[in-house]
Amino acid sequence: MPYAPQAAEPEQEPESETKLNQNRAEQCRKELDVLKVYNKASYDKYEVEYQAIASKTAKYMEVKDSLGADLNYMVMPAYQFQIREFCFRVKTRLSELVLRQAK
After folding, report:
1. Are 86 and 51 in contact, with CB atoms under 8 Å apart?
2. Integer Cα distance of 90 and 50 in angstroms
3. Residue 9: what pLDDT?
4. Could you give the angle at which helices 69-102 and 40-63 cross, rounded to 10 degrees?
């Protein structure tokens, strides 16, 4: 049977991946909150950035369903990357502080 190309329409994010992203976001928020215990100045800096990212993401989520699939296909990874990169920096900073205290 010959391969019939299908329209280039992005697939919806699977439920398990959505749940995984939600769990990652929750873990990131917890780590940000713990950062406050170790270094209030770092927490304040990251909290401002977190609020900015959350605000931009919420704005996008409000209009996401009104955008075409092709546009969402391009935009969604940018938001996901921004959040992952932020969470990585929070985790790295928290690790530094926790390890420094352990010495």
Report:
1. no
2. 10
3. 47
4. 170
Tell me the two tokens of residue 21: 């992203």
* Cβ neighbourhood burial of 35 (10 Å; 0-12, 13-18, 19+): buried
- Half-sphere exposure for 19 (CA within 13 Å, toward CB): 3
Looking up tokens 């950035």 gives 49
Task: Give the global pTM.
Answer: 0.78
C-alpha R_g of the chain: 18
Angle subtended at Cα 47 by Cα 41 and Cα 50, rounded to the nearest 5 degrees? 150
For the ranges 3-7, 24-28, 30-34, 99-103, which has the lowest average pLDDT? 3-7
